[in-house]
Amino acid sequence: MATLIDGKRISQEIKDELKAKVEALKEQGKEICLAVIQVGNDPASTVYVGNKKKACAYIGIKSLAYELPEETKEDELLELIKKLNDDDSVHGILVQLPLPKHMDEDKVIDTISPAKDVDGFHVQSVGALSIGRPGFVSCTPAGIIQLLKRSNIEIEGKECVVIGRSNIVGKPMSMLLLRENGTVTVCHSRTKNLKEVTKRADILVAAIGKPKFIDASYVKEGATVIDVGIHRQENGKLCGDVDFESVEPIAGAITPVPGGVGPMTIAMLMNNCVEAGERA
User: Fold this and answer.
1) 119 assigned to active site
2) What total number of domains does the chain contain?
């Protein structure tokens, strides 16, 4: 029976620590402010934006919401970002993805000032991570490192396997594990003998985007299994990339879905926001 890594509890711990920090900053006359921009009304994005606003309210961060219609021109969005870049009272800028088809996501992200890039997606933030310089780190991988550390799971010297090489999770995850002195292998859709590779992992991070893809046959006994996926099944219940029922009996520790990695993403976004305010 695996130990359950409780992302809800750990994210609450982080939010409470941040709340105390924000109160102390307010006493020094500094109010942290996050600007959130949503273009169009994608239902999942609306839920995420709502959760971010709630987290801001809890911690004491001022949040500015810009809800733009689907047909907004790219130039108008870029103008708004530039205006927020120049506004010293705004410490973090977040553009909710995905954007409508007529917008170039890379161009939009690269317009955000790296000093306010609390999502950690700017090319400069990614570059800083890859060479070990200070900068903002993508929130989901940063949250996973906190889950491991706060659950007393040693990363140093451990065999770590990341399944998935996306710019938002897989690549930054591998770099963060390296930074913590893990020995890291990245697997993807072209990896040969995937099971042989994953069965070596002391820490297995599944960010593959396929529901219940990773079953017990992929997992070494006693391994820590981190499930980044989130999918809605036909019965309406949520599941991850890991077949929890199959893997849980042999894993040493495992994150549930929901309640594992998900809550950590917003906690780390709030952490980046407070950090941006402290640096400003």
Assistant:
1) yes
2) 2
DSSP code of 208?
A: -
Task: Note down the domain range covering 161.
Answer: 139-262
Q: Is 267 a member of any domain?
A: no
Spot the catalytic one: 38, 116, 117, 119.
119
* Whether the Cβ atoms of residue 224 and residue 251 lie closer than 8 Å to each other: yes
E-strand spans in the chain? Answer: 3-4, 33-39, 62-68, 92-95, 159-163, 183-187, 203-206, 224-227, 231-232, 238-239, 253-254
Tens digits of residue pLDDT in 52-77:
999 999 999 999 999 999 999 999 99
- How many H helices and E strands in the chain? 10, 11
Q: Active site includes 52?
A: yes
The reply to whether 105 and 143 lie within a common domain is no
116: CB partners within 8 A, 6+ apart: 84, 85, 90, 91, 92, 93, 276
Q: In the structure, what pLDDT confidence band is assigned to residue 1 with cuts at 50, 70 and 90?
A: confident
The pTM score is 0.95
Residue of 6, 96, 117, 212 marked catalytic: 96
* Residue in 6, 21, 38, 52 annotated catalytic: 52
